[in-house]
Amino acid sequence: MRISLFLCLVLFVFSCSKTPKSSSIVKNEEKVKALISKMSLEEKLGQLNLRGTSSRVKGELPEELKQAVREGKIGAFLNVMNKDYVKELQRIATEESPNKIPLIFSRDVIHGFKTIFPIPIGLAASWDPETARQSARISAIESSSYGVRWTFAPMLDIARDSRWGRVAESPGEDPYLASELAKAYITGYQGDSLNNPTSIAACAKHFLAYGAAIGGRDYNTANMSESLLRNIYLPPFEAAINSGAQTVMTSFNEINGVPASGNKFILNTILRDELNFNGFVVSDWDSIKEMIFHGYAQDLKHAGELAINASLDMEMTSRSYELYLKDLIEEGRVSLDQINFLVSNILRVKYKLGLFDNPFVPENHDGNLYAKSHLEKAKNAAINSSVLLKNEKILPLNKSNTIAVIGPMSNQPHEQLGTWAFDGDKAHTVTPLKAFEDAGIKINFAKGLDYSRDKSSQGFYNAVKAANASDVVVLFAGEEAILSGEAHSRATINLPGAQEELIKILSETGKPIVLVIMAGRPITITNIIDEVDAVLMAWHPGTMGGPALHDMLFGDAEPGGRLPITWPKISGQLPLYYNHKTTGRPPSKEKYVQMDSIKIGAWQSSLGNQSHYLDVGYTPHFPFGYGLGYTTFEYSNLKISNTVLESNQLVKVSVDIENTGERKGKALVQLYIQDVVGSITRPVKELKAFKSLSLKKGETQNVSFEISTEDLKFVNNDMKSVIEPGEFNVFVGPNSAEGLETSFEYK
Ligand code: GLC
Predict the structure, then answer these.
(1) 333, exposed or middle or buried, with CB in 10 Å at 0-12, 13-18, 19+?
(2) Residues 376-390: tens digit of each pLDDT
(3) Ligand 1 within 6 A of 285 CB?
(4) What is the model's pTM?
(5) At what angle do helices 336-352 and 320-330 cross, to 10 degrees?
(6) Nearest CA to ligand 1 atom 10
(7) Domains, in order of start, for the chain
(8) Does residue 422 line the site of ligand 1, with CB under 6 A?
(9) Whose CA is nearest to atom 8 of ligand 1?
(10) Is 322 in the pocket of ligand 1 (CB under 6 A)?
(11) Catalytic residue among 108, 157, 174, 284
(12) pLDDT one-digit tens code per residue, 634-672
């Protein structure tokens, strides 16, 4: 059924297209069709097979693998990180297989390959698409020198619950920011032209709503209305596909009862028919087989049938396609047309990558690994990503100060790289301790704890001693890399081990304390924030985290990050996000009742009757978009061009920003709207634009934004994208909780 639609589409392109396709697209389609017509069924099924290998394969390439390639039974490999293996397998494929179809080699190159950038939640905190693009571009340049031409990135899962370990890889909680980053990642990975040897196919993952796993428990159930799916979880994928993403990966979770890898609605209706995606879809690791455990497939054969008929093109690691597709076709449960359609998608991407003409890594392409320019960009990315959460006039430090460098994350070259940094070599990591030493800072070093989960207080004595002998304590705390990422959800997201105790005992010395957190998620610090004078969130900052932290802490640079995800007071508040609904009983200061203030015998139906927690209230510790710098700003003179907006018109909003502090600084101006009344309830705020400004001391700048009717659209419960007449509030400020307000009416 799908192939007939596909052929009509191809015929349509040839016969009456008003917008003639570029010649290369037409040529590729002709090549794809011609090749399909020559391939045996076995070879077609081989293209659907992504074989995983351990990147730790040692010694000789297994003969079984070589023979399978020789017979055209494998179309792609994952994790072959030995250049000679890549070359030999590709040689066999392009010289000895039936139709000489090249292999495509893939890897998780998520935030760097050898030069490691901050983890993606950190890159999201930069609110800078150029920072994200650079991370992707350098990842592509370095990894393609190893034969990688396909990465499983960007991960575009909206995350609203920091208990989820994969918050570390996510673009945060907001669809607009995530969409802006998605475009930048695709451009970075895929470069100016896909057939450039340093371009690698991107993979928008995990399709779809993986971040909505209940309780933040990885792989768990995602249940939601279709309008929520379309308004919050789909936009970053749409942005990626509109930017030319060549592949998409299905997620492990079910969506409303149907696992993504067998979900015709998301893979056919949304991805293919609505978004016109013409690349290929790959399953996640064994996710086709896992439909058995989901209780959605009887057995592996049934799982394969469900996936192939949902147009999942390529199977990662599980082997239902390889083992059962031939039978399924013979039994009439899968059509040959469908097979041809899926194989065409894969061949199309291989042609676009130029693999048929240039299947091997060019001899002169060494990836420029750890180049000075790469390291410099990684350092700037760490500066742009770090979020200053508190600063009681202690930062920036004075370089003549004697610093007590303390904490389990102060000198951890592996942990600093964060999750999904397989190929980064920790020998190249510059830790904060090393960076301080290299800069000639006077240091007293005492780890205090050997690692973040260390519960022993044995090291406390030396830590206190170091503190007493110094002017300032800089405490590097947080989580090891393994405590976030896939399968690493935590129910309590505080500082693990005895870190809180260490902070409290150091605060008794009376020395000022700067807390630097390296972690893969927001960490609840309610218990200790009053014991420290400053808090800087560095996420896992990557290879150059140390020099970046040195420059920020001593004022050579200013932390540039703003929170891409809400920072809770305690885990019990989660999920917690800024673009929530008002509810019928929105919480308020006036009505909030603090638990300890409740009188004994209070009347049952009292206590504010609002949507709040008696113990912790209703606000986060730090809101989405929050982040301090080393100066202060004042917003004034908010103006709106017209208070009535009609279709296809624009509203212009402008505001003055003055640098009221003592030094140059960055202002990240954020614009939010609120659709006050809708045919379905609408979020209290939605980010629609942001701009980064640099202002000198005393300087005032006017910044303006244009709001178009496109910005007012949402998907209603009839799944129609609509703009509804009525009042819209507009907020312009430094984060989602502060700013100036105006409004307009859409007629
Ligand atoms: C993992 C992850 C996915 C990754 C894939 C290949 O299970 O879910 O993000 O790209 O396997 O390593």
Answers:
(1) middle
(2) 999 999 999 999 999
(3) yes
(4) 0.96
(5) 140
(6) 152
(7) 372-553 (3.40.50.1700), 584-595+602-619 (no CATH), 633-746 (2.60.40.10)
(8) no
(9) 284
(10) no
(11) 284
(12) 999 999 999 999 888 899 999 999 999 999 999 999 999
